[in-house]
Amino acid sequence: MRKWVLTAIGIILSLALGYLFLAGSRYSQLIGFFGYMSVACTLIPLPTPPYVIALGKVFHPGIVALTGAIGNCIAAFVEYHLLLWIFSRTELQQRVETNRIFQRFSHYFHRAAFACLIFTGFTPIPFEPFRFAAILTRYNLFLYLLAVLLGRFPRYYLIALIGDQFQIPTRYLIVLLIVLLVIPMIGMLIKDRTSVDNEET
Questions:
Q1: Which long-range CB contacts under 8 A does 26-29 form with residues at least 24 apart?
Q2: CA gap 27, 15 in Å, rounded
Q3: CA distance to 33, 42, 75, 171, per residue, from 114 (Å)
Q4: Whole-prediction pTM value?
Q5: CA 152 → CA 49, 52, 100, 121, 163, distances in Å?
Q6: Are 22 and 177 a contacting pair, CB within 8 Å?
Q7: Which of 135, 128, 36, 37 lies closest to 81, judged by CA?
Q8: Predicted confidence (pLDDT) per residue in 6-19, tens digit
Q9: Mapping DSSP to helix (H, G, I), strand (E, B) and coil, where does residue 2 land?
Q10: Average per-residue pLDDT in the chain?
Q11: Would you state the pLDDT for residue 158?
Q12: How far is CA 139 from the centre of its chain?
């Protein structure tokens, strides 16, 4: 139930920013984008590429990348403290720390934690396992935020450069946004359906 609530919040925020992009002024779009990126890449699933491309059509890719990366650092800062607070008040922390798979993963993670966070923040490789490992193992907060900044800046720069160079029509970006919103929902539906089938058998 919780994941559906977070998904609904993500859809609402995505559509709200979409409306701002269509109806807002140039600088209100930038402010809205910064607020959006300060929530994106957390527990709330928010697609970022369509908006990074859209902003790249209007602003210099460097401005877009810096705005998005700093926004993600704010999101990472809040999530870091929020998850530690949640784990400290539940048994989840102990259950995760005693898990053999997590122990093995965290062992290798700490060998090159900073590089892993930068690399997965930049590439399409899922960032979430490394993000949660950093939080659960109480990785240095400054290094964590610096890794987020260094990983996300070049990623958003390249995506914004696509918008700057190709000036992709808004209608195609809307289609991309819808696809990115629908795919996770389909995945959750399949997972829920599989769980129900397994319980019935």
A1: 26/58, 29/55, 29/58
A2: 18
A3: 27, 19, 18, 38
A4: 0.85
A5: 12, 12, 30, 6, 17
A6: no
A7: 135
A8: 667 667 777 777 77
A9: helix
A10: 84
A11: 97
A12: 19
Buried b / exposed e across 4-13, counting CB within 10 Å, b at 16+?
eeebeebbeb
Per-residue CA distances from 76 to 71, 149, 164, 181 (Å): 9, 10, 27, 21
DSSP codes, 59-92: S-HHHHHHHHHHHHHHHHHHHHHHHHHHHHTSSH
Nearest to 131 by CA among 180, 183, 75, 90: 75
Let me know: does 114 contact 175? Beta carbons within 8 Å.
Answer: no
Tokens of 196: 């129900």
- How much of the chain exceeds pLDDT 70, in percent? 88
The residues spanned by each domain of the chain are 2-200
Question: Position 179: which residue type?
Answer: V
Radius of gyration of the chain (CA): 18
Q: What is the pLDDT of residues 45-87, one digit of tens each?
A: 788 999 999 999 999 999 999 999 999 999 999 899 988 888 8
Helix, strand or coil, per DSSP, at residue 40? coil
30/194 Cα distance (integer angstroms)? 41
Structure tokens at 35: 């607020």
